Amino acid sequence: MADMITELERQAGADETPERTREKLACLLQHVESAHDALGSRMFHVAFALNVIGEGMARANLLHKSVIEFIQVGLYFFGLEQIERRWSSRASVYSGIHADHLGDFLGRCALKELLCGARVRIDEGRVFCLTYAYLNSMRKAYWKHCRASEDALDVAITSEMVSGEQAEAIPAPEASDPSDRVALMLEIFDKKLTSRQRWIYLAKNRSTLFEERGPTQGIDGDLLALLLGEGGSPGADLGWAEIARRLRVNEKTAKREYLRALHVLLKESSEAIFGGARIPSNYVRRILEQIRGIVYEKDLRIRSATGRGMRTLVDKWEVALRFVLNHERVVA
């Protein structure tokens, strides 16, 4: 902030700076100085600094490169902090929205409109808060994103065409009894997942399946070879690099397909067991929303440092699935 103030003071005192611009710079600097006298050390807190500069821009009707760059950096880190604080369960989606929306929020036309509205509020004796305006704008962008993607996601996550494979026409099987949870999960695994998703799921869970030594009848040759150790040590899970190499895809695509498989297994089992009713567990709904958000993200943001690593996410998914499978079916 000190560098920005120094640059503004230099331009305000330079002869080559247009007179009108010098007047605006002087108005902004005076407002910052008054705010510093009133706030003291609190002025250097990011939220106070952003709001003081935002109000000063509105009062001076000034769009300045140095000021906008300062606000952009400040809002970026302020936004990340608020996302973790306010919307931690949806942080992966909000972080993507935040990164994309910040540029639109600080675009020249959008900023002019924002400052015009701010001047109206100030003239009416009301308070203008830049940080509140940004968080409110980002929240609107989030819900707009959700409304635009909801229908597409419902199709994309369960579609046979998501992995690039040609869907095969198969007759609709008779629905299994939801009380038989093993048969239910096998049916979902066989009918709702693509062959690529089934392959990746088994590749990442070979150790568990090998220990349990479950039945192998009905498993096609490729999957059976995978379980028995072809392409790796028997009973050892394959790494993402090996999975990507064998499927001829990048690791990000392989991870995305794996998360799609987890989402389908949890979503379909929940719908079958709860009879189409609303899932009673907030935890299960939150895990479904979190996986769904990560799958949709272009960059597949999975951050171990914030508790959203792949291993942590899978552990949470397993807890949610156990809750669903151990729940008594709702009687319609």
Structure, explained:
By secondary structure, the chain is mainly α. It folds into two domains: 2-151, no CATH class; 181-204 and 239-325, no CATH class. Helices cover 68% and strands 0% of the residues. The chain contains 15 helices and no strands. The protein has helices spanning 2-13, 19-39, 46-60, 65-86, 91-105, 108-123, 130-156, 181-191, 195-203, 206-212, 221-228, 240-247, 251-273, 282-296, 310-325. Helix 3 packs across helix 4 (65-86).
Brief summary:
With 332 residues, the chain is an all-alpha fold.
Give me the Rg, rounded: 27 Å
* Helix and strand composition category: mainly alpha
- The number of E-state strands comes to 0
Distance between the termini: 62 Å
Low-confidence stretches: 150-176, 213-218
What summary fits the major beta sheet? Answer: none
Oligomer: single chain
Helix content: 55-70%
Arithmetic mean of pLDDT: 77
The sequence of SSEs as H and E is HHHHHHHHHHHHHHH
Q: In DSSP terms, counting alpha (H) and pi (I) runs of 4 or more, how many helices?
A: 15
Globally, the shape reads elongated
Q: β content, as a range? A: under 5%
Number of domains as seen in the coordinates: 2
